[in-house]
């Protein structure tokens, strides 16, 4: 086996381990914790519409990853 083939096989094994780790992390339930940003953004008005627009922008394209 050439050095290039060995490298590719090693990279595939590393990626497989990383995918398994991610899979286990996603399977664990995570506690929902609200974070208050009031102190950080004191004096700034944030409306529900601002939050909705931010979510829309942040999660653009997420539907391709949602389970059926």
Keyword list:
68 residues, 53% helix, mainly alpha, 2 helices, elongated, single chain
Overall radius of gyration: 21 Å
The biggest sheet amounts to: none
Could you tell me the mean pLDDT?
81
* Alpha-carbon distance between the two ends: 42 Å
Tally of DSSP helical segments? 2
Describe the structure.
With 68 residues, the chain is mainly α. It has one domain. The protein is 53% helix and 0% strand. It has 2 helices and no strands. The model has no long low-confidence stretch (mean pLDDT 81).
Provide the fold topology.
Layout: H1 3-27, H2 48-58
Characterize this entry briefly.
The chain contains two helices and no strands.
